[in-house]
Amino acid sequence: MSTNKPRIIILGAGYAGMMTSKRLTQQFAPEEAEIVLVNKHNYHYQTTWLHEVAAGTIDVNRSRIMIKDVVDTNRVTLIQDTVVNINKEEKTVELMNDQLSYDYLVVALGFEKATFGIPGMDKHAFSIQSVDSSRLIRDHIEYNFAKYKNMDNPSEDLLTIVVGGAGFTGTEFVGELAERIPVLCKKYDIPRNKVKIIDVEAMPNVLPGFDEELADYAQRSLTARGITFKLNTMIKEVKEDRVIVGEEEEEIPAGTIVWTGGVQANHIVGKSGFELTKGKVNVDPTLRAPGHEDVFILGDCAWVMNKDTGKPYPPTAQIAIQEADTCAHNLRVSIFGGTLEEFDFDDKGQVASLGGSDAMGRVFDGRKLYGMQAKVMKHVVDDRYLYLLGGPKLVLKKGKFRPF
Amino acid sequence: MSTNKPRIIILGAGYAGMMTSKRLTQQFAPEEAEIVLVNKHNYHYQTTWLHEVAAGTIDVNRSRIMIKDVVDTNRVTLIQDTVVNINKEEKTVELMNDQLSYDYLVVALGFEKATFGIPGMDKHAFSIQSVDSSRLIRDHIEYNFAKYKNMDNPSEDLLTIVVGGAGFTGTEFVGELAERIPVLCKKYDIPRNKVKIIDVEAMPNVLPGFDEELADYAQRSLTARGITFKLNTMIKEVKEDRVIVGEEEEEIPAGTIVWTGGVQANHIVGKSGFELTKGKVNVDPTLRAPGHEDVFILGDCAWVMNKDTGKPYPPTAQIAIQEADTCAHNLRVSIFGGTLEEFDFDDKGQVASLGGSDAMGRVFDGRKLYGMQAKVMKHVVDDRYLYLLGGPKLVLKKGKFRPF
Asked: Within a 10 A sphere around the Cβ of A89, how many other Cβ atoms?
């Protein structure tokens, strides 16, 4: 260590990592701790907006924020590098180009696609998982439209988009496609009825875990705008140009296949020897890795138990952001003493966008919102995070809803 | 025939076909002739702007004009269909969905890629030949950039663009790429030096046929902006991901391969039994097909001899437009008598765009222009055609240079 201050390293600049960086600068005076943030890119991105990048309804740059624009670089050392391994015993992090030692570590490396061993899914399906992977989906769809228009006897299958999973991301993504495809059809002179959007979900309803009334609303709204749902249907296999689904092994030819059906912790977490349960680490109520009082695991790398239900909280941006508060507090306590805080989720509700001006959701008081009212609330939710992160200036620059 | 007026059918709504339609409505009163324009699309496009569509420097819609917006549909019957065959003896044209008989025919079906039997060129190289094929190039390049960014160990070869031919189209295209690639690099976070643009030309200099001083200027300007020229170099073979060039059979791996090295008449012309010389029909000085007094062949389907040099004129939009005047006059003479006019090219000079604000060329009085001055002239030339076609309104709507 270069100083005698305790060094806290945060791995990953997603929702959890960014908010933890910010909270740590508030919890600690400059002389009390050294704070290091390691990230693959020099930007943070809004994971919850990536389905819009993938559909092409927002520009890539709307979804990302330069880290140095919102993190106080006088207080936080930024290192742009890729994590290769965490050595818990030596308390070091191996990066592609460097090695760092830590006193405390915050693992917030985000999620990866979990394909549950479905043959071909890893190879042939796209994933809405980073700025780069989402932009690739957008460009792939447009490229197929361009190819279709330039072929002598094109197959309409090239225009078909199959989405695996009708959870939050899958549903929001097809909602954006419902808006985007008519625009692309116009741009490429392709009749709208030639483009099929099919969402395949193993559960009997869309948005499993959501209130049934809201999920029904979503399904009806999306069906009315041309999305076909195949519910109660498992994907058996994915090939380069088709998906095989259901017990009858129906083949659905498709030009674009996107998997939104499952996520797991960044593979670095398992590789570094943290025990995984269903792909993530079951952290203790103070958000520390079991057996490692110096390692906090946040966001999509962790399962945090909901004591009331006995089940883990579903992973959302809202939870990741709130975890940062608990983590920062507990880091201060770990270093300077006091009482560790247990994570307590303050559920502010959840709103899903359905594309265009439609949305639906539930707000903190349990009220259900539909349509434009829900859409406005969605924008408020999106902007609240930007406000927490970068104040009114960031809302003005990157916000969805510009109240100023 | 549905009327007893002579029916003139124009095949193709490119520069020659559009201007012929317009000139015929001026040459003939409504009761004197029936005018039919057959085209594959409901739009006309600026072939000379397609290299910009292919590079992505202008939007597709800037390059096209709805035919009905500029052709008087009270006078000209528009048929959107694809020509399958011309039966010269029966005086009929077979379309995909119809058959038409004519008294006089104007063949202005444009060009196709001529690959001179280079193995793999037809299959693996793109061509700047229509709105659809040009847009596909743009989308292909962007898709490669997106793929590169989303790969674990991407090869920089994916970013390499090889252009075959440094004639007018090839040179103008690499000029647009010189402008476009830095923008794409910024958009996709790719360092500019990872992208190679290589233009392979069999002749010892770029722009063969152009004034040497001007061609040198173009080569220097483009080289300075990152284009690599391989002159005196034949393309031997094209594979999916590489081009094999020169006597040493050097392999150039590339993600995008575009052929601009040769064009020939639309294949319908040869298929219908017109005799081809180097891929086109040698028309007589009145622009009629040899042996067929009722068939005029214009634009890129024809070679028109320059009596002064004994060589055919190089095919340009300017020539196509002027041919329409001669063709319309000679159609009137054919029907009502008089003296057939021989085509006489009024050379107004030629300006090549080199991308961005650079250009070079020669104007009608032989003066050479460079840089911004040439660029302005290029816009004037582009807009002059729009003016001829659709008057000031069209210049205002689609023009490059808006003098109003």
From this structure: 7
Tell me whether residues A146 and B130 touch, CB distance under 8 A: no
Question: Which of B135, B187, B189 lies at the smallest CB-CB distance from A146?
Answer: B135
- What gap in Å lies between CA B59 and CA B53, rounded to an integer? 6
- Binned at pLDDT 50, 70 and 90, residue B404 comes out as very low
Residue B300: name the closest of B16, B7, B48 by CA. B16
pLDDT digits (tens, 9 = 90+) for B188-206: 999 999 999 999 999 999 9
Give the best residue of A41, A62, A141, A143 to mutate against chain B (max B CB count within 10 A).
A143
CATH number given to A121-261: 3.50.50.60
Cβ within 8 Å, pair B143-A147: no
CATH number of B116-261+349-404: 3.50.50.100
CA torsion, ordered A117, A238, A353, A211, to nearest 10 deg: -50
Cβ distance of A139 and B146 shorter than 8 Å = yes
Would the pLDDT of A400 be above 70?
A: yes
- What is the secondary structure of B37-73 as a DSSP string? EEESSSEEE-GGGHHHHHHTSS-GGGGEEEHHHHS-T
pLDDT in tens, A116-136: 999 999 999 999 999 999 999
Tens-digit pLDDT profile for residues B82-117: 999 999 999 999 999 999 999 999 999 999 999 999
Q: Where are the domains of chain A?
A: 7-40+81-113+264-346, 121-261
In CATH terms, are B7-40+81-113+264-346 and B116-261+349-404 the same topology?
Answer: yes
Across the interface, of B41, B60, B140, the residue whose CB is closest to A143 is B140
* Residues B295-299, mean pLDDT to the nearest whole number: 98
If phi over 0 gives left and psi between -120 and 50 gives alpha, with beta otherwise, what is residue B318? alpha
Interchain CB contact of A132 with B (< 8 Å)? yes
Percent of chain A with pLDDT over 70: 98
Q: Which amino acids of B are annotated catalytic? A: 172
Residue B147: its chain A contacts at CB < 8 A?
136
Q: Is B15 a residue whose pLDDT tops 90?
A: yes
The class level of CATH for B7-40+81-113+264-346 reads alpha beta
User: Do the beta carbons of residue B329 and residue B342 sit within 8 Å?
Assistant: no
CB distance from A142 to chain B under 8 Å? yes
Whether A123 has its CB under 8 Å from any CB of chain B: the answer is no
pLDDT of residue A375: 87
Per-window interface: B 177-216 vs A, CB < 8 A: 187-189
Q: Does A80 touch chain B (CB under 8 A)?
A: no
Interface test with B, best of A62, A82, A127, A136 (most B CBs within 10 A): A136
ipTM of the complex: 0.77
Start-to-end Cα distance in chain B: 45
